[in-house]
Design brief:
alpha+beta; Double Stranded RNA Binding Domain; about 160 residues; 4-stranded mixed beta sheet
């Protein structure tokens, strides 16, 4: 019985070592399928009030605009929610004013929320996505570890120079 167990252990260990030799990035005890699974892509969700167009075409337009503008951030954004509402739905004598609120969820950070309004939903989405792009760029730049003080400056010292009076 002991010989059988030893033989099984040797063959199992040999197959694991062969797997590691064939796949340099592999680790023992980690399922290669689970390890290679891609992370979930950015979700884009659309919420509307009863007076605003919330059909599939609008959701597809929103997703295309958001992915085009924010795609460079990759896996740093997990979800973007859009809320479209008609501000003048109760007064149809006035032209429509569509409000678009976008909320982006960043990995390990607070949500970023922006608002815009326009005559049409497409214009409101475009305006809000532009604001969201600027806001996310600012948030991520503030937390960028590559961001340093000026070269040669020592932390804690004021770099101002007194001007002659």
């Amino acid at each position: 019985m002991r010989r059988l167990r030893a033989a099984v252990r040797r063959s199992t260990m040999a197959s694991r070592l062969a797997h590691i030799a064939d796949n340099p990035g592999a680790r023992i005890g980690v399922d290669p399928i689970a390890r290679a699974a891609p992370k979930a892509p950015m979700q884009v969700l659309l919420n509307t009030d009863p007076h605003t167009d919330g059909r599939q075409e609008m959701a597809e337009h929103l997703e295309a605009v958001v992915r085009d503008a924010l795609g460079r951030f990759g896996e740093q954004i997990t979800r973007v929610e859009a809320h479209l509402s008609d501000a003048n739905s109760h007064r149809k004598a006035n032209p429509d004013e569509i409000h678009c609120t976008l909320e982006a969820r960043l990995v390990g950070r607070d949500a970023v929320v922006v608002k815009d309004h326009a005559v049409t939903a497409h214009q409101a989405i475009q305006g809000a996505v532009g604001k969201l792009l600027r806001a996310i760029t600012t948030v991520l730049a503030k937390h960028d570890p590559r961001r340093h003080a000026a070269p040669g400056a020592e932390p804690g010292l004021d770099a101002t120079v007194d001007s002659p009076a």
